[in-house]
Amino acid sequence: MARIVNGLPLTPIVRRLRPVRDLRPAIMRSMAPTPRPRKLEDLLRDAIRSRDYSLATEHQYVHWYRAYVRFHQRLHPGELGPEGVREFLEHLALDRDVSPATQHQALCGLLFLYRHVLGTELGDISDFAKARRKPRLPVVLSRDEVRGLLAAMTGVEGLVAHILYGSGLRLMEALRLRVKDLDFGRRELLVRAGKGGKDRVTMLPGELEAPLRSAIGSARRWFERDLAEGVADVELPHALARKYPNARHELGWRFVFSAPGLSRCPRTGVFRRHHLHPSRIQRAVRRAQGAAGIVKPAGCHTLRHSFATHLLEDGYDIRTVQELLGHADVSTTMIYTHVLNRGGRGVRSPLVGLKST
User: Fold this and answer.
1) Which of 91, 195, 248, 272 is catalytic?
2) DSSP code string of 241-257
3) Which of 65, 124, 137, 357 sees the fewest Cβ atoms within 10 Å?
4) Angle, to 10 degrees, between the axis of helix 278-291 and the axis of helix 155-167?
5) Rounded Cα gap, residues 131 and 137, in angstroms
6) Is 195 among the residues known to form the active site?
7) What is the Cα–Cα distance from 131 to 101, expressed in whole angstroms?
């Protein structure tokens, strides 16, 4: 029997009530933030990394993208086009007086942005004011200065400096050497993915065999420790991680100059053991320069310049030196002929042999 409330039967009232729908999910969905579109800079980084460009190239291209946007008062690059690129490149040459190499680097970065991120071809934009080339000779140390510099360095920093001079390597080429790249039997170093992504073979001085074997021993100990702790991982060149998934856990792929601690990869965020940081070697070279009393503005790359110059002084042909240095064009190597005592041409000064009257 239905209950009577306020003179009305309860049952009909209940029947007239409809179930209330739970609106919380819909309300939460309406309150959820909508995904924001990705920034153009993030898309640029993705395009660079998908093509396995180096971290240094990524930093350079992002730097020129930011400078380009700032120059045009924060306008979107898609609104600018070829004329905007010309104005920016001329600004670099005429207002900032950059070198031709710097202007070319900016051009490459912007071409990459338009072609691979914005999907736009700029066409022929070569009609802009070019930065003027200023001939500059490289700083070269004498053999005595090299001897004094290397004598003032010890430990792993000294070993890296010996390789820079003894094998003509760039600093990052030396730090990225892996255990498998050293061939003691043939006295050769295999430089993988050097400047321009090219491989080359250069000499391994016999005097460095013992310290390099010691460095490999240290890398082995780090490897065994990482293996025991389950972090035996190392960065591999592009696509090799997929092709050889177990290679990252092999000793041959470890860096000869492994860092003493784990660090986070700036791209993937993975903790792993990388090679030594270049600043560690650069600081050691500067300290040794002061200790050796060298007043020239010497650095790590100065040892490579000295390597090439001293080989030419010893009579080696320029094509051989070009291959050892990994220069694509012999004209790049020719600059070292201008710092030789004989001027690269075997011309003797008229002052030599002049008799006083």
Assistant:
1) 195
2) HHH-TTGGGSGGGSBTT
3) 357
4) 90
5) 18
6) yes
7) 9
304 is an active site residue: yes
Residue 338 appears among annotated catalytic residues: no
Q: Which residue is catalytic, options 176, 178, 273, 327?
A: 327
Q: What is the pLDDT of residue 311?
A: 92
What is the signed CA dihedral for 270, 272, 278, 280, rounded to 10 degrees?
A: 120
Does the annotation count 170 as an active-site position?
A: yes
- State how far the Cα of 163 lies from the Cα of 189, in Å rounded to an integer: 10
Angle at 61 between CA 60 and CA 66, to 5 degrees: 100
Dihedral sign computed on CA atoms, order 245, 234, 327, 183: negative
Beta-ladder partners of 182: 189
Q: What pTM did the predictor assign?
A: 0.75
Q: What is the mean pLDDT of the chain?
A: 84
Residue-wise pLDDT for 270-321, tens only, equals 778 889 999 999 999 999 999 999 999 999 999 999 999 999 988 898 999 9
Catalytic residue among 162, 170, 305, 310: 170
327 as an active site residue: the answer is: yes
Q: Which domains does the chain have, with CATH numbers?
A: 40-117 (1.10.150.130), 135-344 (1.10.443.10)
Helix (H, G, I), strand (E, B) or coil at 187: coil
Strand, helix or coil for residue 321: helix
State the DSSP H helix or E strand holding residue 211, giving kind and residue range, or none if neither: helix 209-229
What Å distances lie between residue 263 and 219, 220, 227, 276, 280, CA to CA? 16, 18, 16, 11, 15
C-beta of residue 170 within 8 angstroms of C-beta of residue 304: yes
Polymer length in residues for the chain? 357
Residues 6+ apart with CB under 8 A from 278: 171, 172, 175, 300
